[in-house]
Amino acid sequence: TEPPSIGVQHTKLLIAISDAMLDVKEATQIALSYFEDLYGEDAFSNVLLEEVERDEEDGTSYWYITIGFTETKPGGPMGPLPSNRRYKRFKVDAETGEVLSMKIRSVENA
Questions:
Q1: Mean local confidence (pLDDT), 64-90
Q2: Directed axis angle between helix 24-39 and helix 6-17, to 10°?
């Protein structure tokens, strides 16, 4: 038999944790899996957890997970091109583990 795809593993993770509130590690893993499912594991380098925040709206708890990554750019005749650090912010339902949104997170240079 074939090994399960990332999507199947993600679904199993959701089922396993659906009975309790997600902790930060579980919410982060869900956001990372979602990111990799959409873009592939090799599309970006230096994929790192940057920020986490738990919030509540109308009695529902959410995790906001920010993932940073470096765009992989092919090199030119003068060598590798400079890469920009980019960020995505995920809104994860803390009870169900469902990813409700993924947005571009802008970070201004300090």
A1: 84
A2: 160
